[in-house]
Amino acid sequence: MERGTVNLKFVWDEASDIEKWSLAALAQLDQADHRALADFLRKQRVRFSESDLTSGLLHLREKDVLTPDNRFVIHLLRLWLQKNRPIEQVREELTEVNPIANRYIEIGMEFKDAGVYDKAIESFQEALEIAKDNIQAQVNIALTYMDQKIYDKAVVEFEKALTMDGEDVSARAGLCEAHLALGDAAMQRNRPKDAILSYQRVLAINAEHTEARGRMAELSRQRAEKALTDGKDEEALSAFAEALKFTPEDPVLTARLEQVRAEKKAKVLAALLSRSEKEAGAKNWQGAIKPLEEASLLAPEDSSIQNKLNEIRAAQEQSRLESLLAKADAAVRSECWNEAIEALTAVLSAARA
User: Burial of 87 by CB count in 10 Å (0-12 exposed, 13-18 middle, 19+ buried)?
Assistant: First the structure.
């Protein structure tokens, strides 16, 4: 709905003159039958033949704009036409086109098709001097620069076209393509920051532009892989997640992210187990238990970690009992009977437990 205006205008821009008259008239009429439409158009002094009108209506039905009884398939289009294309505005649009400007455009197109770009631009500019708001001439100047791959000038000219009509489909699409091409050129020159700016401009015009989203995803993926190479795991994971925001349905990218997460988890677990083993070797039992507890929280499904934790706790208890027995022996040799009894009592309590 937010981007709907562009789609509605696309239907209008793609329509022939008789189709535009028909759409504007049907948006105003309560009766949509062929005769009522024809009578209305004649009252508006529209010049048309019955065959042209019939052909135009048939084409609109084939494009799913109108139903067989000349009703609008999408009611929102009728509301848009009522607001944005009243009959008087349509009359101005269709009857006040300067024929001299049109001829300059035709000449410009001939030059453009022949690859004589300077002459083509001159002809389109001549058309603009005669009809300064002729968006067709302005768009064709931009397209001529696109043909020459002079994308920065194409951007300027497309933007001029959009000041004439901010919803013009050709100008919006062309501006996206120009920015996309500038981004690709920046990538070829190894200037990713400039490329990102160009792709972001495309997405500012059309947030769903597939190619721009794909390019942004690829740049984020490359940044993620570099971060992995540099040992920056968290930065890599963040970049992969960013890439998936642009192409959330990319199965390869999703699988790669899961792989990196699994590898990072395995690396963290290995470090924790190694630290625990080292502390256990030094009989620093609490230092050995803590990393194992962390590992257990990280991978609760891994029973080997819990088994290792149980082993360390058992070794800790065995060490404590051996220490108590040694303490009791030392107390007996020193004839410190109370101290010996206390130590042996603690051993017996632990054995009963």
Answer: middle
